[in-house]
Write a structure and sequence with these properties.
Blueprint: H1 4-21, H2 26-66, H3 73-76, H4 86-93, H5 95-103, H6 112-124, H7 126-133, H8 139-154, H9 158-167, H10 175-188, H11 206-222, H12 224-233, H13 245-260, H14 266-280, H15 285-302
Helix pairs in contact: 1-2, 1-11, 2-4, 2-6, 2-10, 2-11, 11-13, 12-13, 13-14, 13-15, 14-15
Length: 316
């Protein structure tokens, strides 16, 4: 699920919180880092559970309508297509998803009004109406409508975003990555997957990725003062206090990666932190960071501080 750029962002966020707290408990900082990454998976499972609860709400609404004092013909003979959606049926009964929901103690039970609003919005959408009135029926059609509903009614829902921010300080910046993972999961489920483990793993390579984030966090913390001196030497015309906090942090991380990760090409390191700065720092940060890192890289090469394994890894 998480690629290396997303892992670097999680390290950046953990480092920012660590330095802002003025707490020198490294072990606690590392624990918070891993917790923030794990919470991202909570959000992934939480959104998958949302489809189940919306369909359950629709089913309960149908039963309530049947019990009206004067039910209409539509109340007594409802269109069950959405309630019987085959893909949501797989989500509802899948043992692997059920296990994760229980393990993480996730529930939408305290959000009945939100579920109601989401369902009503879905019912009013043109794609829902077309789906309910279509003559053709297949698993692919059921899968496609859930993907469409997710993209148009859930992924960008403002109230949902607000709720996620309230429930976890980690979730606001995780949503794009999680939405991508949810859509990939929906598109990857097949008709025979009722008992299959179709959930995406949190890490692509858990052992290597956990080692990467912990080492990057640790090296940046332990050598923070040393790296700050290196950066300050290249920013003599700037007061360090006037440079964006995230710019300094990203450059420290980049230096930690350049000097301590032998298998990561220098070009990859430079590009990654410049790209991250575009999303998280000021409009001019990418140019500033690129210039300082280029100077530092030249010094590291001259002083033979870069130790890389593999052909081409020193290329910048």
């Amino acid at each position: 699920m998480l690629n290396r750029r997303q892992l670097r962002i999680k390290v950046m966020q953990a480092l920012y919180a660590y330095f802002q707290s003025h707490n020198d408990d490294l072990a606690k900082g590392e624990k918070e880092l891993l917790k923030s990454i794990n919470k991202l998976y909570d959000l992934y499972i939480f959104i998958l559970l949302l489809f189940i609860d919306i369909v359950d709400f629709a089913a309960n609404r149908i039963e309530e309508n049947k019990r009206k004092r004067l039910p209409t013909e539509e109340d007594l003979n409802p269109n069950m297509r959405f309630v019987d959606n085959a893909l949501v049926g797989i989500l509802s009964n899948n043992p692997f998803l059920k296990k994760q929901i229980e393990l993480r103690k996730l529930s939408w039970g305290d959000q009945p009004e939100l579920i109601r609003k989401l369902y009503n919005n879905i019912r009013e959408s043109s794609e829902y109406q077309a789906y309910m009135n279509a003559k053709e029926n297949s698993f692919e059609i059921d899968r496609k409508i859930i993907a469409q509903i997710f993209k148009s009614q859930i992924a960008g829902h403002e109230h949902l975003h607000f709720l996620f921010e309230e429930q976890s300080i980690f979730w606001a910046s995780d949503l794009d990555a999680v939405n991508t993972a949810v859509l990939k999961t929906i598109n990857g489920i097949r008709e025979g997957d009722a008992n299959a483990d179709f959930l995406l793993p949190l890490y692509k390579d858990e052992e290597a990725d956990r080692a990467f984030v912990l080492e990057l966090f640790r090296k940046t913390v332990l050598h923070s003062s040393e790296y700050e001196v290196l950066i300050q030497d290249k920013t003599k015309n700037w007061e360090l206090e006037r440079i964006a906090v995230l710019d300094i942090l990203l450059m420290k991380m980049a230096v930690a990666e350049l000097l301590n990760f032998k298998s990561i090409p220098t070009k990859v390191t430079l590009n990654e932190y410049i790209e991250i700065s575009k999303d998280f720092s000021t409009p001019k940060s990418k140019i500033f960071i690129n210039g300082i890192l280029d100077q530092l890289l030249a010094d590291f090469k001259k002083e033979k501080k870069l130790v890389k394994t593999g052909r081409g890894l020193l290329e910048s």
